[in-house]
Amino acid sequence: MAPSAHAGVRNRPNTIMQPLSTACHGRCQGWKRTMIKAGFLPMIRRAAFALAVFVVPGVMAADADAPFNPPVLNLNAALSLQETLAALPDDATVFVGETHTRYDHHLVQLETLRFLHARTPNIAIGVEWFQTPFQTHLDDYLAGRTTEAEMLERTGYFDRWRFDYRLYRPVIEFARANRIPIVALNAPVELTRKIGEGGLAALTPEARASLPADYARGNAIYDARVRKAFNMHPMEGARFENFLEVMLTWDETMAATAAAHLAANPGRRMVIFAGSGHIAHRDGIPARLERRTGKRVSTVLVAGEHTAEPGIADFFVLSAPRELPPAGLLGAYLENAKDGVRVGALTEESGLGMAGIAKDDILLAIDGKPVSGFAAVKMHLLDKKPGDKIDVRYRHRNWLGSEKESTVMVMLGGESPPHLPQ
User: Fold this and answer.
1) pTM to 2 decimal places
2) 284-336 pLDDT per residue, tens
3) Contact yes or no for 407/391 (Cβ under 8 A)
């Protein structure tokens, strides 16, 4: 088991949680990262993060003559995470936001899941991390019909989500061990890519029918946050209306998928884990789920990108950052090939390169275990750290076309450059 899986259970974060008022000041913190396409995708990513730092026009002017009187948390009297969860109704749907790269945020999610499951075992987990078309592959893994590597490969985790799997693995392992359903909430990237390029109108009738029919529009504060982010990172040819429809698609799809699961499973409660930008101020997923179910949900955010301001969430967890142990890395871009894993570009200090493995070589096995795809490589390296040594069997084709298989020892490197998959 990965260090993070053990740490997520044994080393729980020191947290306290304080309820916040429901008045909305129109601020929003970061939106999700996702993959749409080179071009429109980077703009969405940059603009999404920009949502974390602005105030809707008019708010500052309206408050200019008012006393500066922000809320104060009494840390000596603040409730703990478990005390707060214990006070929630047993049938409440609970949202817990995350900054995708923050380990302590995922520890808060895990602790919330453990506590709620102990109280109400009939619970499901809705997650942004997987996209709706791949639900059956997630179900197969949770039921023990496939391996973890097969699940990750078939759901496209490393292509569609990409964040360090060690952050998410403890929740998935807990769900599997306790037979808790995980519901893939997110819209498929193939559709959000097309919407980013041409709006909902660019979809075929069949594709449009796979998304929610009813998009709640006309929320001026929501639209203003999205427009502000869009304006901060202009891109030639991009249209705000398309950008807004991508954001709406994410939020409406996740809300509709969660609502459908709850409707199909009467009496079941749900805990939903998604990027904090989808949860802050309630007008992303939470309000859209409430619209469909007619029942109010509870929202939880964790300190980090956000400040504890009125209206941002029902509860705000004060958690200190924690770091995962450094991962052992090969130092190369990898891609699936017909009979193994192809080596792409190598980093300057790549362990593969130092061992004599070159671009376009095919990795066949690690420590004697075959690697049929990229996910299998990631699983073999999951518990490794920088400096660890592994045996890699690979195939090299020379310029004459002849092939040769060899096994070499590779020393793993440290943290990778941004956006390197390995």
Assistant:
1) 0.82
2) 999 999 999 999 999 999 998 777 788 899 999 999 899 899 999 999 999 98
3) yes
> What is the C-alpha to C-alpha distance for residues 173 and 148, in angstroms, rounded to an integer?
10
For residue 420, give the DSSP letter: -
Which two tokens mark 239?
Answer: 């249209």
Pick the CATH number of 78-317 from 2.40.50.140, 3.40.50.11550, 3.20.20.70, 3.30.70.260: 3.40.50.11550
In angstroms, the CA 389 to CA 265 distance is 48
* Structure-block tokens of residue 53: 């730092």
Task: Yes or no: say if 195 and 245 are a contact pair by the CB < 8 Å rule.
Answer: yes
Where residue 340 falls (left for φ over 0; alpha for ψ -120 to 50; beta otherwise) is: left
* Radius of gyration for the chain, computed over Cα atoms and rounded to the nearest angstrom: 23
Determine the Cα–Cα distance for residues 113 and 292; give it in Å rounded to an integer. 23
Placement of tokens 């990172």 in the chain: 233
Domain positions in the chain are 78-317, 332-412
Handedness of CA 89, 15, 275, 142 (dihedral sign): negative
pLDDT tens by residue, 400-413: 778 999 999 999 99
**Topology alike, domains 78-317 and 332-412:** no
Sign of the torsion formed by the C-alpha atoms of 157, 163, 165 and 168: negative
Q: What is the CATH number of domain 332-412?
A: 2.30.42.10
